[in-house]
Design goal:
With 408 residues, this protein is of the alpha+beta class. The protein contains 12 helices and 12 strands. Strands 2, 3, 4 and 6 form a 4-stranded antiparallel beta sheet that branches. Strand 2 and strand 3 form a beta hairpin. It is globular.
């Protein structure tokens, strides 16, 4: 068994501690990715059964890429291996680690954009919409800063929690046509819910990110490498800047791109093949709560299931994902509004998937809600009808609904 394969196995078995985002940067590099596929050992590790493992029915080639991608996902980068000079975390797993690697996390980031006359400016020429909270020692010495300064040109500032990636490959496999079939931008049925698709410049439907500004996991992943860790890659070859100015000479010693196409591909496969968390066992109370969930209108946006299409890996092909989302943008009202991004206005957000909800301790896009009930009460705009019906429930009905949501 190779060293890299053993390392990947340890990761997936959950025995490697994950670095916290605010810990000092240790020295490490991407481990060797010459991984020998060994199917005989897979059953012992329970990869298709345990949280954080891959989907069932993956091929040996996909298993190889999954292991390689897990190594890259867990790699702690340093300035010598490409980290920064501006960054939020030192590895993917440093933030995506709850309840397992690939899940959600506790860090909360700051994002800024500008919205003028219905048009969104992501402020990319000034450094982009993500305001990095850390800098490398070389950049600190050169400019005397400890984080990226806020942008006075911004009209909106928002905060973002770390989303879970578990099961996202199934969401990627949902055909655009399915998402579009649920859109009702003019509220033709007069139910108060008017979701619309986020349409990319090339006509594809955006589905990842709180504002649905990425159509594929590869785009989402490559953006995370550059915005969260300052790791350039084939899709994002340019370093971040501070107010558009070139970085001082010598602060970025690693040649670009700092991540190879092979490692980007493997990391994308890792996220594409992560299995969704299975819900807890249903009881009579949770079954009653599921009925209430539909009756009061929560399922109008949080669709219990979506079908996947006929293309892609056999592990995601022609199945159903119980994600509780329609992947559409909905206007959630002025109370939750923060930044625009892509096609989304400040008050529009893509419906948050609820699979794995029981593993979260903070709720809504910015973590402002400490309980599920509080998150529901903060819904506005298109969510206000369901919110009002929730507050009108009897104590028993509300309890069963919350028990159902905590079982997901």
């Amino acid at each position: 068994m190779s060293h890299a394969y053993r390392f990947a196995c340890l990761i997936m078995a959950g025995t490697i501690a994950v670095a916290a985002c605010d810990q000092p940067t240790p020295t490490a590099s991407v481990p060797s990715t010459s991984i020998t596929d060994n199917a005989a050992e897979t059953p012992e590790l329970g990869f298709t059964r345990e949280l954080g493992g891959p989907l069932a029915a993956i091929t040996s080639t996909e298993r190889h890429q999954f292991f390689r991608g897990s190594v890259v996902f867990n790699t702690v980068f340093t300035p010598a291996t490409g980290l920064g000079p501006l960054f939020n975390g030192v590895s993917c797993a440093a933030c995506h680690n709850t309840p397992v690697v690939g899940g959600s996390g506790t860090p909360i980031e700051t994002h800024q954009t500008a919205f003028h006359s219905g048009s969104c400016d992501d402020l990319e020429p000034l450094g982009g919409q993500v305001i990095q909270d850390s800098v490398t020692p070389a950049l600190r010495a050169a400019l005397g800063i400890t984080k990226e300064p806020l942008l006075p040109e911004a009209t909106g500032t928002g905060h973002r929690t770390t989303p879970s990636l578990l099961g996202f490959g199934l969401l990627e496999a949902v055909p655009d046509s399915v998402i579009l079939s649920h859109a009702d931008p003019d509220d033709r049925d007069h139910d108060g819910v008017a979701g619309r698709a986020s349409i990319m410049a090339d006509g594809r439907v955006g589905r990842f990110g709180r504002k649905a500004n990425a159509a594929t996991l590869e785009e989402f992943q490559s953006g995370a490498f550059i915005y969260e860790m300052g790791i350039t890659n084939p899709l994002e070859p340019d370093e971040q800047t501070i107010r558009g100015a070139a970085l001082p000479a010598g602060v970025d010693p690693t040649a670009d791109p700092e991540l190879s196409q092979g490692d980007l591909d493997a990391t994308t496969v890792f996220t594409e093949l992560l299995a969704p968390p299975a819900p807890a066992r249903f009881t009579l109370l949770t079954a009653a709560g599921r009925g209430t969930f539909t009756r009061i209108g929560c399922a109008s946006c949080h669709l219990p299931s979506l079908p996947t299409g006929s293309s892609g890996s056999r592990a995601v092909r022609n199945t159903v994902v119980h994600a509780y989302t329609d992947l559409l943008l909905h206007d959630m009202g002025a109370g939750l509004a923060d930044i625009c991004l892509g096609q989304a206005t400040p008050s529009e957000f893509r419906t948050e998937p609820l699979m794995g909800l029981r593993f979260r301790s903070r709720f809504l896009h910015d973590g402002r809600a400490g309980t599920i009930a509080e998150a529901i009460r903060l819904h506005g705009g298109e969510g206000s009808g369901a919110r009002d019906r929730f507050t009108s429930l009897s104590g028993r009905e509300r309890d069963s609904l919350l028990r159902f949501l905590r079982s997901l």
